[in-house]
Specification:
This protein is an alpha+beta fold and about 525 residues long. It is built from five helices and 24 strands. The longest helix is centred in the first third of the chain and has 71 residues.
């Protein structure tokens, strides 16, 4: 095509575009003067919660993870769980062979039974010894009473002898009538008539005290009769003393027997206590032959198999099937040298947390106890509240980027959540509750730090006015207004997608932290005045 024709077509195109632009500008001018515009981006000033938040990515972890291993040596007999199994607290995980433990328990039980029998025998012996001691105590009391009676009888006989000797020393004018002296024994004269004294004491002492005292002396006996009574009373006293001495000796022996049997009982009881402790240890040893879950959780690793020999602190595989190359010896390796897992690893499922890395600037605002919320890409629409429970005191530096790790413990656990799932953590670092607020995009911050908004004067006519407002807390999605606006007034916002929203609705749409959605980070519009 000739160059002249190209130029002609270009001029025609420019003319068409210019004509269209003029038509559009004319229509806009007509619209501005003849028909007031209709606002579609407004928000009402209302009371809301203004928040600032920080965000991090993390993964779901168990609050507690524990490796369960055997504390006694033996051979693994059973492994009852696998990786991924959900276990309950106290559930058995694996066991060791129990033959040796069963024998130890049986021997300990036999020892306990024998010790119990020994205690029973010792208790019977001490009961018998105490009864014998009580009998000797009674015998000592009885012989003491008999001796007292015999001594009183001896005193009486001596008095009679003195009277007889006194009477015999006096001259008498008439023949003396012989009157029998009273017997010093409780039963009267023995073998003599009514007028004679006993010539000997009875062969045994009475078992009880006499019921009456020595008979009164009505007449004075002869000297021979009185001497005979004194001798009989002396023999009675000697016999009572001998009986008292024998009873005291029996009492001493009985007391020693009580002490001896008490010592035997104490030793038997000590032996029983030791035997029971040994039985408890044997039973505890048997209990250590089984691994049980310490809490509800999920098995994440199983490092033992049936047939493995465990030493109580480590696990040795039952066999090594791998064959190392000859060059392995140069590296100090040998068959079976690879370390084995110590047991079965369980991660708690009742308490979960999300560990995330926060940017250096954001970490400065982190505090333990702050509220947070977590969302999970694998669980759309779900959000879980939580609390910051730990902040690392040291940073992590990766490719020159400094971050700080922090953990947030979940207050609720969704049924579908799984360990290792990724999560977005949003932590509320500050907030103002129930304050007048407008969307953050409605406020313009000037270079001198002054805040302004476009307040709707007449929505029908499409008129606004610029209002200087006092700004309190600046949140992620909203700004606190301390002066310049009243509740219920409307302001112009810059979001094309929002139509006639109140500030509360706007915050909900942007995603309140308690609903688990991260409010978008927005920058203030700046205008040079």
């Amino acid at each position: 095509m000739p160059l002249r024709r190209w130029i002609t077509w270009a001029l025609v195109l420019v003319l068409v575009v210019a004509t269209a632009a003029a038509a559009v500008l004319w229509r806009i001018g007509v619209s501005a003067t003849d028909e007031p515009p209709t606002f579609s981006r407004i928000a009402a000033v209302s009371r809301a919660t203004v928040q600032t938040t920080i965000t991090a990515q993390g993964s779901v972890e168990a609050v507690e993870s524990r490796v369960m291993s055997f504390t006694v040596p033996g051979e693994v007999a059973t492994v009852e769980v696998g990786v991924g199994a959900e276990v309950a607290s106290g559930q058995r995980l694996a066991t060791l062979s129990s033959d040796q433990s069963d024998n130890a328990i049986q021997e300990a039980q036999t020892t306990v039974t024998r010790a119990e029998h020994a205690v029973t025998r010792a208790q019977l012996a001490i009961d018998t010894a105490k009864k014998a001691k009580a009998a000797t105590d009674d015998a000592v009391d009885a012989t003491a009473a008999l001796r007292s009676v015999a001594e009183r009888n001896l005193n009486t006989a001596n008095d009679m002898l003195r009277q007889a000797e006194k009477a015999a020393s006096k001259p008498s004018s008439s023949p003396t009538r012989s009157t029998p002296a009273p017997s010093t024994s409780a039963g009267g004269g023995a073998g003599g008539g009514a007028g004679s004294l006993p010539t000997s004491l009875p062969t045994s002492l009475p078992t009880s005290l006499p019921t009456s005292s020595v008979p009164s002396i009505d007449t004075t006996p002869t000297v021979d009769q009185a001497r005979t009574a004194v001798e009989a009373a002396q023999a009675e006293v000697a016999q009572a003393k001998a009986a008292a001495s024998a009873a005291a000796a029996d009492q001493t022996a009985a007391a020693a027997k009580v002490v001896e049997t008490q010592l035997a009982l104490d030793e038997a009881r000590t032996a029983l206590t030791i035997a029971r402790d040994e039985l408890t240890d044997a039973q505890g040893e048997a209990g250590r032959l089984a691994l049980t879950a310490p809490f509800d959780g999920v098995v994440t690793e199983v490092g033992i198999t049936v047939g493995d020999r465990v030493s109580g602190t480590s696990v040795t595989p039952s066999s090594t099937s791998a064959t190392l190359p000859a060059s392995a010896s140069l590296l100090g390796l040998s068959a079976g040298a690879a370390p084995a897992a110590q047991g079965i690893t369980i991660q708690e499922s009742a308490s979960l947390e999300v560990s995330g890395s926060f940017a250096e600037a954001d970490a400065a605002a982190l505090r333990v106890g702050q509220r947070a919320a977590m969302t999970f890409p694998a669980l759309p629409g779900s959000a879980v509240p939580g609390t910051v429970t730990w902040i690392s005191p040291t940073p992590t530096v990766n490719a020159g980027v400094v971050t700080y790790e922090a953990t947030v413990t979940l207050e609720e656990i969704p049924p579908a959540i799984r360990l290792g799932q990724t999560a977005t953590v949003v932590v509320v670092t500050s907030e103002a509750v129930g304050v007048l607020a407008v969307p953050a995009t409605a406020v313009t911050i000037t270079d001198d730090g002054e805040g302004t908004v476009e307040r709707i004067v007449d929505a029908d006519r499409g008129t606004t006015e610029t209002v200087v407002v006092g700004i309190g807390m600046e949140g992620d999605a909203a700004v606190e207004i301390t002066s310049g606006l009243l509740e219920g007034e409307e302001v112009l916002v810059s979001f094309d997608t929002l139509t006639n929203l109140s500030t509360t609705d706007l915050l909900n749409q942007l995603g309140g932290i308690l609903q688990g959605n991260r409010a978008p980070s927005t920058s203030r519009r700046r205008a040079r005045r």
